Known about the structure:
Its cofactor is pyridoxal 5'-phosphate. This is Cysteine synthase CysM. The strands form two sheets. Strands 1-2-10-7-8-9 form a six-stranded mixed beta sheet, with helices on both faces. Strands 5-4-3-6 form a four-stranded parallel beta sheet, sandwiched between helices. The chain is α/β, with parallel strands linked by helices. The protein is built from eight helices and ten strands. Helix 1 packs across helix 5 and helix 2 (71-82) packs parallel to helix 3 (97-105). It is globular and about 55 Å long.
Amino acid sequence: MATLIDLIGNTPLAEIQKLNPNPKVKIFAKLEGNNPGGSVKDRASLNMIRSAVQRGEIKTGTKLIEATSGNTGIALAMIARLFDLEIELVMPSSSTRERTLTMEAFGAKVTLLENIETCRDYAEEKGATEGYYLLNQFANADNYMAHYKTTGPEIWQDTAGEITHFVSAMGTTGTIMGCSKYFKEKNAAIQIIGCQPTEESSIPGIRRWPEAYLPKIFDPSRVDRIMDIDEAEAVKMTRQLARVEGVFAGMSSGGACSAALKLAAEISSGVIVFIACDRGDRYLSSDLFG
């Protein structure tokens, strides 16, 4: 018998076959929507809360607060319940209604503000007051260490160590930082590719941060290449993933898949794994699949 926490991680790899332009390259999607909270953020959220509790930084009565664009908030709301903790989640007002309703279903307080930068400023200010604990996923080593301890080893095991390229969207950069740390220790030749939106694009889950808001956990030396993803390109690929490959995921996953397909067209052979961050059902109120 398993607890809900036991079900976080060990998500499957699904091969992308019909969209793959190169028969000598294998492309796999790591289906993070299979986590109980529906996204890759279950991993970091669990590690951030559990580690802080173990260190004694979070005690009974402590109120958690965090700024989020959505998936981290859902995961934190779920896991906070398991630890009997109150949490306030601060989100951009542009977030889909599904996200807000899901967080509130877990009992979280949701505050909506103008944009993610405003949300981060608000959370940091309130987190500095007595009785509150700011998780600060953007500067928290427990974020990327979750992926060093779980996501990276799972991919390594499931590809029998044959992975040659790892592709990930970059938001907080926790996933790419933790996986890069693990893969480079196993095989320094593995290429780490990060995805960011083009200057004019807006892609939920992928950010092009202003210098002042660049996540403190981000180390550019751990990323071999950054690929810019256009918003229209990410939307098109997200729809194709669902309609051609049967992978129902969000726009950041479409962006990562697009990067993986471009990469496959460039190389002679290899094994590419990209992160499919979440499920598509939390975007149904938007026009993503319209």
